[in-house]
């Protein structure tokens, strides 16, 4: 069995992968992100993530920060539109300390007002940094427009004006409403027995009172296709084309992942990289991404180039998208695409931390995790006509956002 799973009486799900390693990675994944914020709370999920480290009932902020780092370990966290993840890495002998610390900051943080005010300034700097990066900014603004009116349609960082109005009591209310035990997964990967895993999970998470989420998530219908140009005073043109796509439980998710990887994945021989960079030397940066959510998704293509090359890049890209929508990939091209994708999955699985976090997300959404063998079977079963049908659906009627 690749994964060992069980559920605590309070609803927190636990998942273990045993590997031979001197290092242990562990995390608590909470099914709470920026899309769970109410109007007036935009930026709250990310603010909570920052202020979890600012003191608990047992520790001062400096004690939180030094607990693992003094032993050579690491403690960190991140926020997405749908999750907040607190994760730690330590030597095997220190894993219990990491689990206890995660439990302490998630369930016993006090969110001191003076620390909250200080951390707002850190986030203000993060917002300024983000605004100075058109590559990052165009992704967020495009999603804001694609999901306009939906809980998915606002920036994770929030705005300075909204953040200034947030205080400790607001944070505590948000945590009480969204950090419920039925929406949590504790995951660990390391050289640990099932008994040791259960012991540490029971000790530090088993005593947390059970709680259940009292609200659901909704997503509004997609807007009509749009094409917007925005003056940002950048040296280059930055272009994003895309469309709403399939959710995490849609059977078409996997063929779209394969298709987007072939079109503009990380490999140097992706179709768009070859077309725009290698053959025509028009763009240094081009990529295609697909982000699925629990009830929706977004497929997008990004490139940057000199202003005089923008029209040519768009023309070439549209032609390539049309070919994928109209013609089935050749057997050889399809075979290469599958092998390449499987190789990338296998290599990424060698990163134990990343693999653990991905497994936790899967267990949170599906209640199960596919091993590499199962994923391989599903990918190898895909056929060219399925990919063409998906390409026709996704690459038709795309929206565009251009920074110039």
TrEMBL record:
Pfam families: Peptidase_M16, Peptidase_M16_C. Its cofactor is Zn(2+). InterPro entries: Metalloenz_LuxS/M16, MPP/UQCRC_Complex, Pept_M16_N, Pept_M16_Zn_BS, Peptidase_M16_C. Residues 20-158 form the Peptidase M16 N-terminal domain. Residues 168-340 form the Peptidase M16 C-terminal domain. It comes from the Bacteria. Belongs to the peptidase M16 family. This is Zn-dependent peptidase. It comes from Alistipes inops.
């Amino acid at each position: 069995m690749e994964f060992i799973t069980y559920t605590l009486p309070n609803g927190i799900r636990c998942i273990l992968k045993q590997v031979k390693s001197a290092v242990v990675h562990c995390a608590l994944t909470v099914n709470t992100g920026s899309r769970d914020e109410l109007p007036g709370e935009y930026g709250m999920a990310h603010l909570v993530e920052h202020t979890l480290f600012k003191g608990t009932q047992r520790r001062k902020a400096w004690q939180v920060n030094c607990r693992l780092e003094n032993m050579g370990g690491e403690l960190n966290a991140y926020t997405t539109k749908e999750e907040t993840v607190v994760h730690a890495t330590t030597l095997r002998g220190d894993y219990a300390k990491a689990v206890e610390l995660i439990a302490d900051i998630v369930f016993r943080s006090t969110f001191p007002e003076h620390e909250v005010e200080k951390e707002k300034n850190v986030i203000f700097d993060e917002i300024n940094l983000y605004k100075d990066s058109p590559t990052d900014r165009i992704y967020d603004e495009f999603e804001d427009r694609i999901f306009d009116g939906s809980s998915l349609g606002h920036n994770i960082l929030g705005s300075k004006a909204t953040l200034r109005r947030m205080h400790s009591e607001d944070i505590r209310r948000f945590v009480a409403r969204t950090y419920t035990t039925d929406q949590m997964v504790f995951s660990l990967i390391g050289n640990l027995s099932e008994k040791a895993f259960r012991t540490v999970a029971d000790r530090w998470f088993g005593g947390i009172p059970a709680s259940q989420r009292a609200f659901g998530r909704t997503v509004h219908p997609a807007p009509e296709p749009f094409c917007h140009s925005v003056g940002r005073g950048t040296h280059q043109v930055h272009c994003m084309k895309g469309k709403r796509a399939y959710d995490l439980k849609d059977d078409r998710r996997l063929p779209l992942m394969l298709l987007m990887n072939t079109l503009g994945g990380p490999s140097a021989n992706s179709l768009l990289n070859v077309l725009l960079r290698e053959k025509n030397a028009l763009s240094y940066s081009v990529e295609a991404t697909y982000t699925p959510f629990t009830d929706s998704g977004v497929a997008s293509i990004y490139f940057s180039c000199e202003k005089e090359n923008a029209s040519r890049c768009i023309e070439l890209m549209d032609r390539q998208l049309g070919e994928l929508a109209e013609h089935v990939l050749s057997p050889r091209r399809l075979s290469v695409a599958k092998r390449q994708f499987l190789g990338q999955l296998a290599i990424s699985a060698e990163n134990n931390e990343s693999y653990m976090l991905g497994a936790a997300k899967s267990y949170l959404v599906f209640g199960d995790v596919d091993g590499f063998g199962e994923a391989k079977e599903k990918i190898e079963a895909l056929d060219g006509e399925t990919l063409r049908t998906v390409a026709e659906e996704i690459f038709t009627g795309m929206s565009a956002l251009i920074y110039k």
